[in-house]
Amino acid sequence: MAAETGPLHGYTVVELSTGIAGSYCTKMMADGGAQVIKIEPPQGDPLRQWSASGAEIPAGGDGALFGYLAGGKHSVVADPDVDAEFVNQLLAGADAVVWSRGSSLAESDAFTPAALRRNHPDLTVTSITPFGLDGPWSELPATEFTLQAWSGGIVGLGRGSPDRAPVFVGGQVGEYLAGAFASAATLASRRRGVGELLDLSMLETQIAGLTYYPVTFFQMLGRPWRDARKLTVPGIACAKDGLVDVGCGTAQQWFDLCAMIGHQDWIDEESPLSITEQANEKAAEIYSWFQSQNIDDIRDLASAFRIPNAPVANGANITGLDQFEYRQTFLDNPRDGFRQPGPPYRMQPAKLSPPHAAPRLGEHTAHYRKARPPVAHKPDGTADRLPFNGLRVLDMTTFWAGPSCTHFLAMLGAEVIHVESTRKPDGTRLIAGIPVTEEQWWEKSPIFSALNTNKKGLTLDLQTSAGRDLLRRLIATSDIVVENFTPRVLDQIGIDFEVVQTIRPDAILLRMPGFGLDGPWRDNPAFAYVIEAASGVSWLTGYPDRNPYEPYSVGDPNAGVHAVNALLLALEHRRCTGEGLLIEAAMIDAAVNIAAEQVIEYSAYGALLQRAGNRGPTAAPQNLYQTADVDEFGRLDSWVAVAVANDEQWTGLCEALGRPQWAVDPVLNTVAGRRERHDFIDDQLAAWCRDRSGDDIVQCLWDAGVPVGKVMQPHRQTEIPQLQFRRFFEDVGHPVNNRVPHSTVPVRFSAGPDRFHRRPAPLLGEHNYELLTELGLSEQQIAELEADGVIGRAPGSARRAAAR
């Protein structure tokens, strides 16, 4: 039974990849019960010798991160020069293959994505590359760092301080994002039931995970989300006894913070300044108050005021935090004993595969060489069927994490009904800064538009018995119900898994709480920034001599794509058993998985990973360097990202610079030497870049094979020719707003669709009549519901009805 062996039992995946992205993709599938055959060249995956802290890996041993990512997989060694037939036999019996560059095996002519599709047309071939397989940038070098620059994620939502260079999000989060999207796309393709090529671009996954729909925002409103770097205040602040994160994501939270620290006089609902600007004006006084308080007292107060808050976790302290202890978030690695996160979601009655040991190099080679040749896999689907066609999703989510999950489903064919209330519409309708004096101001949010295309819009006041009754009737028609409230909200409206099961036994209930459905932090409000702080993501972001910066971005979309993966496992379980499921996809559990390296390094080697500005463990030199360009805001604040990941790229950099005397020092010919003299190299590169334009630097270094990227303002993403080639943006019309570009998904499916956005985001309550008529309500009944404020087409109609 699938319930006993994992939802993906019987699904076979061949891993022809190196690095974190491909390994995390297949780890997620192995956790779901898939058989993953990792085919390695004789020297093994380089991850076997990787440690972010530089810990020495003994001969014949494996790095701890490899031990985490490869758990439960089978290792087969193959030499591309002599074992092509053997590898093709393994591929012939597989359902999917995950491919990335980086090994002689994957890059041999016999196993390129094109060759895999040609020789194994029934396979799902998932390719993970920096820019995509085709297009003007497809062969250009890149690293996680330079991709963050191109994506706009380095400047993101104005993270950082204007007195220093902008700073990237630390911890290789882009690799994990790419892996999670690759897994979701692969399992979505499985539902379609045809062999196809999935072409994932890591640049596009970073845009999806590190920026907040900046193109749509800019082109709809004529201004960027933020045009300068500003600290989030209080953000991560110093208390008496350490660091604590307290954030204000809404105006109400800012007002509550003012009251919390005894400054009700700061509350000004008519202020022309944003809450960020108001907080920055009062920063000195706010920080002074925080320094006078203990962490626990601050968090107790903030929780009482419903202000998002969290401790600031790192590899050393995270396993001892009470929420994680209560929920047993961290487990012992079954082979090497270090601590690692459990799966990023939980479900019942289906069970994920328990942790298994990672294989030694070639441990399973003999078994597969002796095994009977597998029966060829023959899909029975049709290419013109979108993966989620026929699924109805009741989407009770708001803001970013939940809607990003259901948006993926909607773009790939699901019927998604987005439920709001006129009393409290989706929060993204309210955060664009549109004056309430403008006609239909609530329909003009670029963020809502970008997150909700292809969905239907329904309003229901769930504080009324009529609204709750209609909700139950809708559940009876839905395959999936998704919500991302704090747990107490669903309790208040009387909907839990048992209730859903009585209404529709095969329905899937996906819950996306911030910190989980139980534990001492259960009811704490969770915005991206506190999730990032509590998981360790923030710890590695920023400069070593300052408090960490909140990335303020990745926590939500990362939760969304992990929830998609959980749903795909649940759908597979339902297909096999007919059972409905409860999924708990807590934002924090998804976040601790993409920050796993910190706790792994600390528990395996005693090494506490630290933030280092724009430097990182994968390249040296790696940094941002100012150019001669004046930016679009009239400032000398333009930068390029350069990352030299190996000796060959160092040679290329030296050639591009004209082999200056300083660069030919033999000490710099090794990674260790370059890392030791990083300050010196930075000074030289800074001087070289200072008098050149960003475009000239990029062209010069790319021609020499050196990873480089301009630090883009995120709203300029449409200017990138590679994104234009891949049609990553699609123009979307709207009955209220102008036709503007909207980002799509970071994967191109060879079986389609050719276009992802089929209709614009819904107006508030746009489909009330259609959906309620389907439930059997008459025109008179629908009119009465509107008169009573149970449904409506404008914010506040419920309150107006009550006043009558």
From TrEMBL:
Keyword Transferase set for record: yes
Pfam families in UniProt: CoA_transf_3
Species, as recorded: Mycobacterium cookii
Protein's UniProt keywords contain Transferase: yes
InterPro entries from the UniProt entry: CoA-transferase_III_domain, CoA-Trfase_fam_III, CoA-Trfase_III_dom3_sf, CoA-Trfase_III_dom_1_sf
This protein's UniProt keywords: Transferase
GO terms assigned for molecular function: CoA-transferase activity
Domain of life: Bacteria
UniProt protein name: CoA transferase
Gene3D superfamilies: Crotonobetainyl-coa:carnitine coa-transferase, domain 1, formyl-coa transferase, domain 3
